[in-house]
Amino acid sequence: MSLIKHARRIPAAAAALISGAIVMAVTALGSVAPAVTLAVVGLTASPGAQALTCSSSNALRCTSYTENQFAGGFSFSEGYGGFGGASNCSVTHTPVVFIQGNADNAASWAASTYQVSGYNKPAASTYQAFKNAGYKDCELFGVNYLDSSERNSSVAQYNYHKESKYQIIADFISAVKSYTGASKVDIVSHSMGVTMTIAALDYYGEWGSVRRFVNIAGGLHGLDSCLWVGYGNPYAPTCGSQNWYDGWIFGFYPDSAYPGINPWTADHSTWYSLPSAAYENSGVRFYTIDGGTHDEVMCATTSDYSTCGNSPLFRSASNVISQLNVGAGSDTQAVNWDWANNGYPAYPNVYGGDSNGVGHFHEKNNTGSIVVEMLTTSCSGIGCASTYQNDNYGPVSAQ
Questions:
Q1: 98 DSSP β-pair partners
Q2: What is the pTM of this model?
Q3: If you write DSSP's letter for every residue of 313-377 in order, what string do you get?
Q4: What distance in Å separates the CA atoms of residue 338 and residue 283, rounded to the nearest whole number?
Q5: What residue segments make up the domains of the chain, in order of their start?
Q6: Which residues contact residue 21 at a Cβ distance below 8 angstroms, ignoring those fewer than 6 apart?
């Protein structure tokens, strides 16, 4: 199936921000230097900076939070809340856009960390790790692209990749660029947020807006559990193959022979295949963090158990800078196909690393120091985990 890229309309929120709060000049290193201050059109600034807060979490995700935590004149009405913005704040780093995974919320980037037995507990959430590194609230942004009903884990199996979600993500990136004056952003994404963002950037041809892309536990090659669920199961469209009538609609079914064809999860079949995102976009630096067979979402079944943990890995390319395995604790038990985690969070699917170490969700919550190094230094390979190793937060290996 041949797909074409689409022109993106300028959303109202971005149009109001075109004049900008601050016009910035992006340096060769990706940092942003203030140039000239202009009036913000059509916006009312909020007093003071507003940091992202998570009222309570279970070390997997944020469970109690304020949905809309925008501040400082930044607003975005297309999605379902999020965070970012601050008044009296100058942008000096490339803005970071956080995109969380299926049934999750943007506040989960501030969820608490987990202590792996024999190691130290990471001192800060992923969001706070950026604050500790000198990032400000006017440089850190996140959006809920799923509505409140879609963020209920009991219906996670009904969420899938589609154009309406691509528009929210692409327009949010545009709004962040307009607000900060930056020409590019850095993307930090987790799970379905990885694949949804890649598809959004492909759909609108917006890869030129991205400097660096961090993939945490993204199912680039699909989920082996979907082989059990089926490519066209109406009770789990998240496991679907590529839609026959609209190729931009797809699920996590691993590419297979007809009729389970899914070029999105194939290695080399087409320019928009997820594993080939780095190969096809040489101007962006790509990074991966995964948990191998400790990841209860990637390795929930006996199918291809020896390779299931490789699903988040990009196809080899010179701009794939670092791909790290931080999995710890128990391996998944590989006994069922219930990827949707019925009973989550009390009973993570076939347990795995998140029960006593680092699995699918702790890969996001525990690795803030790694992500900061990926975005702020010229590190490569295992070198991107130097702080993580020095602080003894858990095992890590290069892939």
A1: 142, 188
A2: 0.87
A3: PPPP-TTEEEEEE--BSPPB------TT-TTTTTS-TTB-GGGTSB-TTHHHHS-HHHHHHHHHS
A4: 38
A5: 12-42+58-398
A6: 37, 38, 40, 43, 72, 73, 179, 180, 181
pLDDT tens, position by position, 362-379: 999 999 999 999 999 999
CATH of 12-42+58-398, one of 3.40.50.1820, 3.40.640.10, 3.40.720.10, 3.60.60.20: 3.40.50.1820
pLDDT digits (tens, 9 = 90+) for 180-221: 999 999 999 999 999 999 999 999 999 999 999 999 999 999
- Rounded CA-CA distance 101/97 in Å is 13
Task: Check residue 12 and give its pLDDT.
Answer: 43
Alpha-carbon span 197 to 203, nearest angstrom: 10
Q: Compute φ and ψ for 67, nearest 5 degrees.
A: -65, -45
Residue 33, both tokens: 């230097």
What is residue 228's predicted lDDT score, i.e. its pLDDT?
87
Q: Write down the mean pLDDT value for the chain.
A: 87
**All residues at 6 or more sequence positions from 200 whose CB lies less than 8 Å from its CB, including other chains:** 165, 166, 167, 169, 170, 206
Residues 167-180: what's their mean pLDDT? Answer: 99
Rounded CA separation 241/239 (Å): 7
Residue 50 has pLDDT above 70, yes or no: no
CA distance 144 to 134: 25
Which of 38-52, 241-255, 272-286, 358-372 shows the lowest mean pLDDT across its residues? Answer: 38-52
- CA dist 358 → 31, 61, 327, 364 (Å): 32, 13, 5, 9
Residue type (1 letter), 366:
N
CB atoms within 10 A of CB 279: 19
Output Rg (C-alpha) for the chain, integer angstroms.
20
pLDDT of residue 335: 53
- Parallel, antiparallel, or unpaired: how do β-strands 285-290 and 320-325 relate? parallel
